[in-house]
Amino acid sequence: MYTLGLYIYVLGMIVAAFFHKKARKMVLGISQTYILLRRHIKKTDRVVWFHAASLGEFEQGRPLMERLRVEHPEYKILLTFFSPSGYDVRKDYEGADLVCYLPFDTPGNALSFLRLAHPEIAVFIKYEFWTNYLTTCRRKGIKTYSVSSIFRPDQYFFKWHLLNKYPALKPIRQFNHLFVQNEASKELLAEHNITNVTVVGDTRLDRVIAIKDAAAPLPLVEQFAGNVPCFIAGSSWGPDEEIYIPYFAQHKDWKLIIAPHVISETHLKEIEKLLDENGFTSVRYTELEKGAEMPTAEGKGQALIINCFGKLSSIYRYGKVALVGGGFGVGIHNVPEAAVYGIPVLFGPNNQKFREAQALKACGGSFEYQDEASFAAIMDKFIKNPEALQKAGEAAGRYINANAGAADKCFNAIFNQ
Q1: Strands 230-236 and 255-260
Q2: Residue 321: is it exposed, middle or buried by C-beta count within 10 angstroms (0-12/13-18/19+)?
Q3: What are the pLDDT digits (tens) for 98-139?
Q4: Which phi-psi region, left, alpha or beta, contains residue 405 (left: φ > 0; alpha: ψ -120 to 50)?
């Protein structure tokens, strides 16, 4: 049933490729995978294969890849993506010897891919559970590991099915070992007699610490921030902007730095219009790079719009409080990326499936808002009580540092046995 459904999905993607740019990118990219494997992977190469669905999962696997490169240079690193959003950003990633798309999970594709790639070890990051690839890896004696995975009772794997109870557990049973984020995941798997599991936490925390330690200064952002408290809105979406921009229109002693999740001209103009309606002067980061003046209009709020990629993780250092967007849509983005700087992080209500967000809320380092009133209540408390702001920031930074180390545990178990 799984494979039949997959063939139907593949057919649908091929048809969609004629009409949708993202589908076309994926189909065309996958068509090049076997060519790339033949060109870059020799029969004598020792290969470790990492697979990530998209960019977020890549960041969770990155600490392992970069350490593998240093400590075991005898291996070639193959990195595959399923999503164009991950592949497009990291196709030139220097930490891997080859970056390509993963062909659809049909039995034939799994056999062909693994014959050409012939990895000794395969590492699947977080939510990647491809039945035919994992089953074929098992048959070929390829050691397979799941890293930073997390499981919940409402996931497809654990739901009852009419034809066969828990058939979706088959891919999970193929792993040599699963390195999960929390005890709840381990206990849930144990209920289904899956016991080759170790709780290590999330490798993402190791990655954000490494990013923080390597972050380059951004003189233009530093000049904009000056000695004034800054509110950093990271991965910002429209519903978030409609809440925090009007609030800071009443608190012009704070500056805004806005890094939209979608950097399109349409969205940028929407932000600029909302800022103008609320009495702000604003400038885009790329305009500053070209020599534009800093926004300094007296009596107006000041905002810097980050209209380029790759800078947000370094920008959080200039903030007193951060917001991570997405909480009114599909889900919040990278909360640890901000919390690692020891500042409190705010986000919208769709955060229940994000372990770090829940843990940071529990320890007082992050805060959820549902609307204008709840957002104002949180920020009013921070502005009126600097000690509360400091305490929340310290809690955020302490949580990140106390829970780091997952990458070391995974690496030693997989590569230093």
Answers
A1: parallel
A2: buried
A3: 999 999 888 999 999 999 999 999 999 988 888 999 999 999
A4: left
CA dist., res. 351 & res. 333, Å (int): 9
Residue 63: name the closest of 180, 202, 177, 197 by CA.
Answer: 202
The token duo for 274 is 């909302």
- Is residue 303 within 8 A of residue 255, CB to CB? The reply is yes
Sheet holding 75-81, edge to edge: 98-101, 75-81, 46-52, 119-125, 143-149, 177-180, 197-199
pLDDT digits (tens, 9 = 90+) for 29-49: 778 899 999 999 999 999 999
Q: Per the structure block, which two tokens stand in for 257?
A: 């730095």
Instruction: Quickly tell me which residue has 């999960």 as its tokens.
Output: 180
Q: Is the Cα dihedral 314, 261, 241, 275 positive or negative?
A: positive
Contact 366, 335 (CB under 8 A): yes
SS3 305: strand
The two tokens of residue 177 are 């070992």
